[in-house]
Amino acid sequence: MNILLRIVADKRQEVDLRKSLIPVSQLERSVLFNRNTLSLALSLRSSAIGIIAEHKRRSPSKNIINQNFTVCEVAKGYENAGASGLSVLTDAKYFGGSLDDLIVARACCNLPILRKEFIIDTYQITEAKAHGADAILLIAAILTPKEIQHFSTFAKQLGLDVLLEIHNAQELDKSLLPSIDIIGVNNRDLNTFTVSLETSKTLSSLIPEEFVKISESGISSIDAVKTLQPFGYKGFLIGEHFMKTDNAGQSAKAFINQLKK
Ligand SMILES: O=P(O)(O)OC[C@@H](O)[C@@H](O)c1c[nH]c2ccccc12
User: Fold this and answer.
1) Which fold has domain 3-260?
2) Which of 26, 69, 158, 169 would suit a FRET pair with 206, their CA atoms being 20 to 30 Å apart?
């Protein structure tokens, strides 16, 4: 079984267990669920350099990246660096994240926060809001067009922005809905883990103007960002390049300052 299918199969079990432990009605009563959200799309649109900086302890492709930071220091560091958004991985088994990370991140910064998760059920969208997220990720490779439609409209009703991630033209075809705010081209193939910025270059012209376009994964230089900007990318999702250093916030700050020049 390929890795993506394995993650999704594990996720199904995890979500079923979570649902049996905490009912939706309880999530909906939480303080965080009943707050006003921030718009990640708006933040990207209004910024000249839209960096979405990610908190990522480990990944299936790299194993351990960094376990030495607290989520709070990373969130504060990224905010201080001038990031336009914060991405927090909440998958535990493959990425070492948790919903607690999301709560801590929310308490520590005022950036729009993306719940980085393999979403296969509306329950996880309610959970995202109840733990402080402002936006959710939908991965076209693991969803049917019907699910993309259903999950994205559900998220919009909760006031969350929707980032739809694609890796090829077929995935884009099933994703062009008004309930999607941001389209992210993943430069990393989630089956093979190979990274190529060419993916962002090739797919850029196929993405209609009304969506905020971002490029995700494997971005590790100023050059990479500058190369992709002329293709219409307004945002860049960067994790490992910042997290592998001994000060993620400082690393993001130096990166963003360089881009401003
Ligand atoms: O650490 P990187 O190479 O900068 O990548 C960040 C982000 O794009 C990546 O973590 C990611 C993109 N799409 C995903 C889907 C699930 C989990 C993780 C991801």
Assistant:
1) TIM Barrel (3.20.20)
2) 158
